[in-house]
């Protein structure tokens, strides 16, 4: 979400708040036991299936851009 995009002293964007991030072995599945995140920023397919993909990242990026321009 837009609140997690920070600017450094040269006004370069830096992502903050990795509260839900974790490193995983590429052999592990991406299935989680619970859907987590900020309501309104969660992709509909992630809400319904609990599985994330590149599409869920694109959805979140789109929501963040919408917040920035409105």
Describe the structure.
- With 70 residues, this protein is α+β, with helices and mostly antiparallel strands.
- It has a domain at 24-70.
- It has two helices and two strands; from the N terminus they run ββαα.
- The chain has helices at 44-49, 54-69, and strands spanning 5-7, 13-15.
- It has a two-stranded antiparallel ribbon.
- The radius of gyration is 14 Å and the shape is globular.
Summarize the structure.
This protein has 70 residues and is an alpha+beta fold. It is built from two helices and two strands, in the order ββαα. It has a domain at 24-70.
Annotate the secondary structure layout.
Elements: E1 5-7, E2 13-15, H1 44-49, H2 54-69
Antiparallel strand pairs: 1-2
Integer average pLDDT: 78
The H/E string reads EEHH
Work out the strand percent. 5-15%
For the largest beta-sheet, the strand count, sense and barrel status come to:
2 strands, antiparallel
What is the C-alpha radius of gyration, as a whole number of Å? Answer: 14 Å
From the helix content, strand content and strand pairing, which structural class follows?
Answer: alpha+beta
Fill in the keyword field for this structure.
single chain; alpha+beta; globular
């Amino acid at each position: 979400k837009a609140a997690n995009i920070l600017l450094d002293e040269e006004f370069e964007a830096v992502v903050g708040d990795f509260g839900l991030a974790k490193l995983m072995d590429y052999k592990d599945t991406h299935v989680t036991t619970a859907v987590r995140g900020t309501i309104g920023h969660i992709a509909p397919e992630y809400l319904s299936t609990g599985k994330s993909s590149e599409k869920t990242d694109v959805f979140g990026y789109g929501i963040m851009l919408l917040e920035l321009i409105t």
